[in-house]
Acetylornithine deacetylase (Halomonas korlensis), 842 residues
Amino acid sequence: MQDRERRVLAQCDEVLDQTLEMTSDLVREYSVLGHERGALEVMEGWFERLGLPVERIPLDDPSLAQNPHHAPVDWPLGNRYNLVAALNPEASGPHLVFNGHLDVVPAEPTDTWTRPPWEPWQQEGWLYGRGAGDMKAGIAAMVMAVHAVRQAGVEIRLPLTLQTVIEEECSGNGALACIHRGHGGDFVLIPEPFGARIYSGQAGVVRFRVRVDGVPAHVLDTSAGSDAIETMQRLFPALKKLEAELNAERLPPYDVMAHPFNLNIGRFEGGNWASSVPAHAVIEGRIGFAPEASPASVMQRLVVAVQDAHVELELPGEPPRVDFHGFRSEGHLVDLESPGVCLLEACHRALTGRDAEHYLSTCTTDLRAFHVAAGVAGTCYGPVAERIHGVDERVNIESIRHTLKAYALFLCRWQQQVVAP
Amino acid sequence: MQDRERRVLAQCDEVLDQTLEMTSDLVREYSVLGHERGALEVMEGWFERLGLPVERIPLDDPSLAQNPHHAPVDWPLGNRYNLVAALNPEASGPHLVFNGHLDVVPAEPTDTWTRPPWEPWQQEGWLYGRGAGDMKAGIAAMVMAVHAVRQAGVEIRLPLTLQTVIEEECSGNGALACIHRGHGGDFVLIPEPFGARIYSGQAGVVRFRVRVDGVPAHVLDTSAGSDAIETMQRLFPALKKLEAELNAERLPPYDVMAHPFNLNIGRFEGGNWASSVPAHAVIEGRIGFAPEASPASVMQRLVVAVQDAHVELELPGEPPRVDFHGFRSEGHLVDLESPGVCLLEACHRALTGRDAEHYLSTCTTDLRAFHVAAGVAGTCYGPVAERIHGVDERVNIESIRHTLKAYALFLCRWQQQVVAP
């Protein structure tokens, strides 16, 4: 390792406390869908304090909706944006992107948390809070890595873009908006909290909603109505059957996993009153599938599965309505031979003395937008988190330090590879 | 029929349009739990226009909560009240009560309605809207019956109390508050929309809530969590088994019905995000039972059924939490020999030329409070409605006319029975 690199790594140790502070500042802003503004403002403040140029990339850009990779959504887009800090945008040379998402998934009901999920706390080497792991610590690490490099006296001369986006948890349209505005770059690193492993591929994901309308009635004669909650439950086996089929069809590299493609019915809402026969029921869920399958084909199979179940089970009422909002994301495999991935592996070896493990994912990340919409290579590499999307989510503090160092070292070497020092 | 009675009935025809107007005014105020204020203000305006004295009976009276028949609830009580119009409260002689409820059950999702449920409309002899049948038309009929009697020149000299209450659909605490304040009277008629039939008894009802906490996790490994929606569904058979037992135990007069005691799971809410394994699920429901059973015994059986299912099915996580809010109402049989009921039967015969049918109910009404908390006899007799608690709820307009006349005639004869004309 060069002296300069050692200086950079020492500087990473120096800025760890600030990194935790930024993470905590972001956790305090509970940035669920539609409520990202507080986190965006905190992030913008940090970019400014660190002397990084910052630009807002709105999600309601009309031309974005025309992008073939845009996912239709049914929530408002006004005043919602990503933040991009573009260094040396006019410089020649390969353009590096660090990307992370500011949005988090809901934590309700919060009474199961040890402390309120938007009041970050530290305990025995872990930082807790909703989004602490997924992925505010990763964002803080990637941003502070750039700061550490500069603090160590290393001038950044190549184009480097930091992106902190929204809608990673629902549509992927945030990252897509950055790419749509020309910020795709040539290689992207995303510090998703899957640990210090090279992310080697991800599943496709479609997000769906099914609505059943029953025939409502008073409970004095429940037989007069048809219970939408009960009808909805009778559809579940058809969805599970589709899940089983998608897993049975799996090919390498997913064949080494027993069940990589998960169905999740993540929300169920039905009826409105204890003494009214439920007149409606809605579920929202997601289903994973192999990189070989197209989102459109899986959407079609899901619609057919529900329609067939309605007919075969002779379910009452109108056929259920299936619609799709948010993710309709292809899976893909990471090009593990790409120069950026090879460089990351070298950095990992330099820092740990060991080869990096690979991590094949059963979910999706914003890597998808870079891969499918811009043909940009990239991978994820980040802190270690536990219980993401769960209760008492937490991120390991030493793993944040490692992420800081890995991103800083990567940035130094990326620049050195192509530009004389 | 006496001339005076004929004049009163003719006056009822005169005020039918006003009765429909009052019904529509009330339907326009969508008076679901916690939002009854608009309907109360409209009602108060009508009482005042008709020259009837009006008094507010608050539900947050601290002594009410000490009443042994009060149902514990977990929603706010401040600024929520019933309206009582007490005529001749100081007069001697038997005290007659007409009682109806202003609260309605939710109509959401309203997109299944032909028109918005709070925009009343008439079509082919029916008046439509949420609460049109259950029971704003009944309230309008009972109030306008009093007005018609007075307009016909018949002086009301006995104590008569009109009560328009809230919380009939959830706790029964509204009617109880009237009784608690001394407005129980000696006989009560409630124009619930079960038609021109003598209500002969009602089931007991307990309202319950069950909450399951899962072990939340990211969908990348659904097996890491335990799905609260799925766990909740696995409890349903235990609840259905209790329902079957309660029906198997039925005694006369409920033995002539195949299934008088209904379980209804009227609300299901679980999870919070398509791609998070559901961390919680809550159901709200009601279960009916025989007049012989006590609410406490049924509540106990329900708790045991859920706890046993949790153990026997080896369900994951903590035992489900069962709690009770709102109805914990005894069933009871109406004393069909009481003078008031006999008089109502006579009025029915006078108006229709036929004996009244009896109607044994599988649900509960505010009659319960009069029976159990004050030992006051009474029954229901009212308009014909369809799809109460359902979509496109409607009430038959000719049946409103009949209810008007029956209540007016009853009032005349009630007075004549005990006071020389």
